[in-house]
Specification:
Layout: H1 2-11, H2 15-47, H3 52-99, H4 104-109, H5 112-119, H6 129-157, H7 159-165, H8 169-206, H9 208-213, H10 217-252, H11 255-269, H12 275-316, E1 338-345, E2 355-362, E3 367-372, H13 378-384, E4 393-398, E5 401-402, H14 408-413, E6 415-418, H15 429-434, H16 442-451, H17 455-458, H18 478-491, E7 496-500, H19 508-521, E8 526-530, H20 534-539, E9 542-547, E10 550-555, H21 557-563, H22 566-585
Helix pairs in contact: 2-3, 2-6, 2-12, 3-6, 5-8, 6-7, 6-12, 7-11, 8-10, 8-12, 10-12, 11-12, 16-18
Length: about 575
């Protein structure tokens, strides 16, 4: 029932296309079953010496039926193929659009390779879900039409011979009921093994540097061989059961041909049946062989499609952790004033709090630094601002409006975000900065690059901003990656800029020039920065010191140093690390 409901959702807005395919299926079936009748007329006319005119007329009708059948069948097949490809695209777009709205818990639960398999292999037009959704269904509609019409004409020709011909039918029904669960379990196992292969490749290629550093190439090759071997066995098991069932449907039905020849031949010899009727009857039984094969294939591929539908529904049933505002408000004045009020966060019900009663305020133009040990909650604070996830308690306000009351698009258009690990794509530097935002002009790209201290270096490249960088920015340095990500954030002219420890890969001179340019070009931009760099902390208007999810100290740099508390210790450690780094560099 779940599969039927899912297919209905896919087809419900395509009523005209459904009607066209049904009409074509019925028309093709009518033309196919008409052919043996006129073949019978030609044979009987020859046997009875009815004359050239009668024979020529029936031969012409046979020719016209053949041409019409060819045209209808070709158009029907082309329409099905086009619909298969369209479904493949539509299903992928729908599922992908849902997945990118989901939160961190989904991507922690599902491996990347598994998600990729479900979006590619499960949906593929190669006799899988998108093929079954159209061709699989309408081949069966066509097969049923041929079987029903064929049986009607067979009964009209000779009811007793028809009864003998359909003898294998109960056997096929028993086979289907007996093998149903075996087919489904084997296809479920196969899709899981395909996911394992893709997940193994993704993990290996993503961590290829570590693999090489530890000389684990042979171990990876061995483990990949094992994963592939499990997939091979699953493929063979699935092919075996599918082939056996489909063959049974096709070949058991051919016993009907033998029965017709034996019983019908005896009736012809006894004079109870004409030779033309026997030939027509035999043609009908042959005509029903492939439709019966399609019925068998429908059951097998239906089970396979049901497995794929179940895997997609499983992902589609996951709800986004961050929902759109039900009654969205507009920000009255986009200034970038940010306020946290008693914000707490935990990632599981009853679990430990990642943040505990966090409250602070950042006014437009201020630089607020967040410091603390690893795991103290700093990144969670900055991730709450663009609603990458929501707090379990408390509220966050931008310009006096709760972030939960803003459209996500409106909220995130106010924010520029630079993560600790910059994500770049295999595209030009300009397109990495623009990042699919059509409203960003070349002038904005150049201005943002100037502030990020990137423009001068990029202009030295042979192709300038049109230079293509490798996957994840493999062809540029770590500092350049960070500055491309920073330019991307600045190009949208954000009101709130979030920097998650992204200045760590910049030298002191570049960092100082960055802060000067930022203050000059974006003087009213509210900036949240996670950093332990002394130069950054000394510039901050407000420093928030975190420990175990709580703000344990707050104030300016000079105020906190004079207290000689947690901040003073972290600041001295940071200075020591920088000095050691400079000594090593010298």
């Amino acid at each position: 029932m779940r599969s039927i409901k899912w297919l209905h959702e896919l087809w419900k807005d395509k009523k005209k296309l459904v009607l066209l395919l049904v009409v074509l299926s019925v028309a093709n079936a009518c033309l196919a079953v008409a052919y043996p009748l006129y073949m019978r007329a030609v044979i009987d006319a020859v046997k009875e010496k009815a004359g050239a005119e009668a024979i020529s007329k029936n031969v012409l009708i046979l020719l016209l039926i053949g041409v019409a059948n060819f045209l209808v069948y070709s158009f029907m097949q082309g329409t099905r193929a086009w619909t298969n490809i369209r479904f493949e695209r539509d299903i992928r777009q729908r599922v992908f659009g849902h997945l990118i709205r989901l939160g961190r818990s989904f991507f922690q639960k599902y491996r990347t390779g598994d998600v990729v398999t479900r979006l590619t292999d499960d949906i593929s037009t190669e006799i899988k879900l998108s093929w079954f959704a159209c061709s699989g269904v309408f081949r069966t509609v066509e097969a049923l039409c041929i079987i029903i019409l064929g049986l009607v004409f067979m009964i009209r020709l000779n009811p007793l011979l028809t009864l003998a011909a359909v003898g294998p039918l109960p056997v096929l029904i028993i086979i289907f009921m007996w093998t149903s669960s075996a087919v489904q379990s084997r296809y479920e196992r196969l899709q899981e093994r395909i996911s394992d292969v893709n997940a193994h490749m993704e993990a290996c290629f993503s961590g290829i540097r570590v693999v090489k550093a530890y000389r684990r190439e042979d171990a990876q090759r061995k483990s990949f061989h094992e994963v592939l071997d499990r997939r091979r066995r699953a493929e063979i098991d699935a092919v075996k059961v599918g082939t056996v069932i489909e063959s049974m449907y096709g070949y058991i039905w051919q016993f009907g041909v033998i029965i017709v020849l034996l019983v019908g031949g005896k009736m012809v010899m006894d004079g109870a049946l004409s030779i033309g009727t026997l030939v027509a009857f035999d043609a009908y039984v042959f005509l029903l062989v492939f439709p019966m094969y399609d019925i068998g294939s429908f059951f097998v591929q239906g089970k396979r499609a049901g497995v794929s539908i179940g895997r997609l529904v499983e992902m589609e049933s996951v709800k986004p952790e961050v929902e759109e505002a039900t009654a969205p408000k507009a920000v009255p004045r986009a200034l970038g004033a940010l306020r946290f009020e008693n914000v707490s966060l935990s990632f599981s019900r009853g679990g430990a709090k990642v943040l505990d009663e966090v409250s602070f305020e950042a006014r437009p133009g201020e630089l607020v630094a967040l410091v603390g040990k690893v795991g103290s909650g700093k990144s969670s604070v900055v991730n709450l601002v663009p609603r990458l996830f929501d707090p379990t308690e408390g509220q966050i306000f931008i310009d006096g409006v709760s972030t939960r009351e803003l459209w996500l698009e409106d909220l995130r258009s106010l924010i520029g975000y630079v993560p600790q690990e910059p994500l770049l794509f295999s595209d030009s530097i300009a397109n990495n900065i623009r990042f699919h935002r059509d409203g960003i002009t070349q002038e904005q790209i150049l201005q943002a690059s100037e502030v990020a201290r990137l423009k001068g270096e990029v202009e030295q490249f042979p192709e300038g901003f049109d230079t293509r960088i490798g996957q994840r920015g493999a062809t540029i340095s770590g500092g350049q990656k960070q500055r491309v990500a920073l330019a991307r954030a600045l190009a949208g002219k954000p009101k709130i800029l979030i920097l998650d420890d992204c200045t760590a890969s910049l030298d002191a001179e570049t960092e100082a020039a960055l802060w000067n340019g930022l203050h000059e070009v974006f003087p009213h931009c509210t900036t949240l920065v996670i950093s332990h760099r002394a130069a950054t902390l000394e510039r901050a208007d407000l420093i928030l010191v975190f420990d175990q999810g709580k703000i344990v100290e707050r104030g300016t740099h000079s105020e906190l140093v004079s207290k000689r508390g947690v901040y003073h210790t972290l600041y001295e450690l940071g200075k020591l690390e920088e000095e050691v780094g400079r000594d090593w560099g010298d």
